What we know:
This protein is of the alpha/beta class and 399 residues long. The chain has two domains: 7-51 and 306-396, Aspartate Aminotransferase, domain 1; 52-298, Type I PLP-dependent aspartate aminotransferase-like (Major domain) (Aspartate Aminotransferase, domain 2), CATH 3.40.640.10. Helices cover 42% and strands 14% of the residues. It has helices at residues 7-14, 18-33, 52-64, 67-71, 80-94, 108-120, 136-142, 162-168, 191-208, 270-283, 291-298, 307-324, 346-353, 380-396, and strands at 39-40, 103-106, 126-130, 147-151, 173-179, 213-217, 241-246, 259-263, 328-329, 336-340, 358-359, 361-362, 371-375. The protein has a seven-stranded mixed beta sheet with strand order 2-8-7-6-5-3-4, sandwiched between helices. A four-stranded antiparallel beta sheet has the order 9-10-13-12. The longest helix is centred in the middle third of the chain and has 18 residues, at 191-208.
Amino acid sequence: MFQPYQSSMLALGKAPSVIRETFEYGNRRAKEIGRENVFDFSLGNPSVPAPESVHETMRRLMDETDSVLLHGYTSAIGAEPTRQAIADDINRRFSAGISAADLYMTCGAAASLTVTLNAILCPGDVCMAFAPFFPEYRVFTEATGAKLTVVPADTENFQLNLAAFAELVTPETKAVIINTPNNPTGVVFTEENLRKLCDILREKEQAFGHPIYLIADEPYRELIYDADTVVPYLTNLYDDTFVCYSFSKSISLPGERIGYIVVSPKMADNRNVYAAVCGAGRALGFVCAPSMMQRVVAENLGKTGDLSIYRRNRDLLYNALTEYGYRCIYPDGAFYLWVQALEDDANAFCQKARDYELLLVPSDSFGCKGYIRIAYCVTTEMIERSLPAFKKLAEAYGK
């Protein structure tokens, strides 16, 4: 029977993510009552400007570089000088033994993940994610014909639930995605927690006789607010690791779509796996990552936006909501606050919050019921104006 379009793609198009739906509701509401009266905490869109050095680099490149060269294609895998600069930076910081030949430049974090998943997953394979997780992991995985298995959340401290994970791994498991600092909780997984995960993976690889790939989704790596918080580099803990990175959050370039994939040099069959990454990028239509932005990030490695603004926002919101009676999970990084809803149904709670013009994201699509995500990558002034609304919402529930 003739179908004019894929039914699965139609379903995705007609059912945007709850994050985007909330964001669009906020835009409509702002037209009705004024932007200043809407407290939109839906979207993880950086509110801290890119470092001035990024702007300076762009201006200099446009003034001094031949336009055809600056805006033309690079190699499909990315310009070699950019890949070498990134490899050198990774090795300086983490002693990871990465070479330019292990790097593949991408159009941001989503491309890093989709290319990686399409390179390794076959129909019938299983990819695993720990709840709570970024909802698009399911979309990206299922588009390959594989299945996503969700590991239930450890709702005590939101570290990796390793006991449940060990029971759920099967011979069909091909990959595991982890995200630290985590979206949506802001929690950083401890080195002890990660080492135990890697021990389990090695045991399962040996038992099943095939690789189980660890995919480290790291757009928030640099967004850390406490001096004693460490994010281990995963290729140093587990050989069969991909690192999927984006500059969207660290230097506030979400709209420029620039990131990369690291294929660990210690990975079994590294060269063929890397070739599969190249093939997946080709099949998905990624000719090369944005040319000028490759040059820009190469000259701004190690830079970040002003993280003190996010830290101030975190402290302000966490302290106030805790005082009002909310249970908040302390975020070590990223720019999200994970809060237990004041009723069992997080969707109903978020609907009630709209009565106070608070736009919050319910947790169901993150694989963990009963919580809300608050993106505090907004102006500090907006947070200050929103606090009376949060207090009134709490009082409506008897807090």
